[in-house]
Specification:
With 92 residues, this protein is mainly α. It has helices at 2-19, 22-43, 50-66, 72-91. It has four helices and no strands. The longest helix is centred in the middle third of the chain and has 22 residues, at 22-43.
Length: 92
């Protein structure tokens, strides 16, 4: 399940590459890294649900924000995009 869900989100990010704004391309690329690391961590455990992916990526983003990686505008952009991507991938 985790690989299929990951693939759906990555496909949504890739689709933005053709028509996305600079902000969307930045947020998509940023999220791709967090998603990849989060999925790799989850694959080592027992919970491979979409909810676990959502929580792990949120945790990863929270750590990055706490470390000062994103300014407030970019924080809002990335977090909103993550929520939207998760919702879209969950529907499919």
């Amino acid at each position: 399940m985790i690989a299929e869900f990951d693939s759906r989100i990555l496909a949504l990010i890739d689709d933005m590459g053709e028509h996305g704004s600079d902000d969307e391309l930045f947020a998509g690329g940023y999220l791709r890294g967090h998603l990849t690391i989060s999925v790799a961590r989850l694959e080592e455990g027992d919970d491979h649900s979409a909810g676990a992916v959502y929580q792990q990526v949120n945790h990863s983003l929270e750590k990055a924000i706490a470390a000062g990686e994103l300014n407030p505008r970019d924080q809002a952009l990335v977090l909103e995009m993550w929520d939207n991507l998760y919702r879209q991938a969950s529907v499919n």
